Amino acid sequence: MRITVIGTGHVGLVTCATLAALGHDVVGIDSDDEKIKTIRSGRSPFHEPGLEELMNREVSGGRLSFTTDPAEAIAEAEVVFLCVGTPPKTSGEASLVAVENAARLVAKHASRSVVVAEKSTVPAGTAQRVKRVLELERSAHEFHVCSNPEFLREGHAVEDNLHPERILVGAESDVAFEAMRRVYEPLTAKGVRLIETDIQTAELAKHACNAFLAMKISYMNGIARLCERAGADVVQVAEVMGSDSRIAREFLNAGIGYGGFCFPKDLAAFDALARQLGYDFGLLREVARLNDEAIEVVAAKVKEILWNLEEKHIALWGLSFKPNTSDTRLSPALKLARKLLDEGARVVGYDPEALANAKNDVPDLELANDPLDAARGAHCLVVATEWDEFLGVDLAKLKELMVYPVVVDGRNLFDPAAMKDAGFSYYPTGRPAIIQ
Ligand code: UGA
């Protein structure tokens, strides 16, 4: 099929590459000239495992191209995916200006009937707005709007798109359903389930999924607070809970909380939508409160251990919002860095992929080129993001380099017994501390 993807951010670029890999002819369009230049030079503007290779393979194969020219990109498209950003306003609501503008571009440049698929995460009711914009533009062509939310995780995005657990399409016309069945036929032929609903159900289901996952994390962070007080072990509690198939083990890891550009903003937008619809969904705000508290707890722990933070050197391992990404947007690690810096500490961070983004976000943060370098002369090491690389660090060397052998593990990355054997005072999250 001839497919156009508007917006080549994280969702859009992965969508471009994977739809081309499924055999479609795909054009990706973005108004950001620099971004398109980078992509055309064969580089992804962000770190995503497997993306650059796939993108370059499909470009060389002739199925994928990129442009900044909407006329060229949209004219012949059978399906246009809207993958533009929906950043939060100060009220928490999602800003839908880019979605409206993208819809207008489609109406202006279409030269045939088009299926318009929303992929960006949007509040329920957005598709009806998109439909209205398309009508008001008085195009000579027919438009069929549908919702096709993505469920990809950064760091696994290519894999998630090529082997999804399910595909969700909300539509109100057979033309739209039929087109989306054709788009995803290579996957459904292999047994992937395609769930079809009305449009607002699909839109709302996406927010419901993300809010639920965020709730699982915050629930466990609340349990961690109880475990810390009761002397229990949150990791073992998670194992027990997760062995119940009704609960499932994923997303039960207590730590310094969730971040990234999805959960925090989606939760706020979902809460705003609930209020607009006349329902006070207070649970969502409690989830966000527990998430903020998770960072406070780690910061308080560091302060309690080190007493005065002025003139203390704190090593911070992991700066991205989760492992396997260079993305630092709303990263709990950077929120923690700011807090420690505000208290007067010197903070030296290390991350395998996110150093440049972190420096941009928190200029006062000092950076090191490897984990041991960050810890040289440190009074305390805080693990903020659980990169596998940290597990390979020589603990004896680490201890030798530090002024105080103190590790605060905000992600429960390390094995407490190994930390004990290596002679560290070890403070995990929601598990008994080892003080020596
Ligand atoms: C999330 C969802 O997982 C995807 O399904 C969804 O498509 C995506 O948002 C989106 O809406 O675009 P992502 O933001 O890439 O994906 O990251 P996750 O892997 O979900 O992690 C989110 C945050 O939760 C991270 O900061 C992570 O460290 C934290 N987390 C995750 C925990 O603190 N504990 C856990 O047990 C799991």
Structural overview:
This protein is an alpha/beta fold and 436 residues long. The chain folds into two domains: 2-196, NAD(P)-binding Rossmann-like Domain (Rossmann fold); 226-427, 3-Layer(aba) Sandwich (Rossmann fold), CATH 3.40.50.720. 45% of the residues lie in helices and 14% in strands. The protein has an eight-stranded mixed beta sheet with strand order 3-2-1-4-5-6-7-8, with helices on both faces. Helix 18 links the parallel strand 13 (406-409) and strand 14. Helix 10 (199-230) crosses helix 12 and helix 10 packs parallel to helix 13. The radius of gyration is 23 Å and the shape is elongated. The mean pLDDT is 96. The structure holds uridine-5'-diphosphate-glucuronic acid. Residues 121, 150-154, 210, 213, 217, 251-253, 255, 257-260, 262-263, 321-322 line the site of uridine-5'-diphosphate-glucuronic acid.
Blueprint (SSEs and pairs):
Layout: E1 2-6, H1 10-21, E2 25-29, H2 33-40, H3 51-60, E3 64-67, H4 70-74, E4 79-82, H5 97-109, E5 114-118, H6 126-136, E6 143-147, H7 157-162, E7 166-171, H8 174-183, H9 185-188, E8 193-197, H10 199-230, H11 234-242, H12 263-276, H13 282-306, E9 313-317, H14 332-342, E10 346-350, H15 355-361, E11 366-367, H16 371-375, E12 380-383, H17 395-401, E13 406-409, H18 416-421, E14 425-427
Parallel strand pairs: 1-2, 1-4, 2-3, 4-5, 5-6, 7-8, 9-10, 9-12, 10-11, 12-13, 13-14
Antiparallel strand pairs: 6-7
Helix pairs in contact: 1-3, 5-6, 10-12, 10-13, 12-13, 13-14
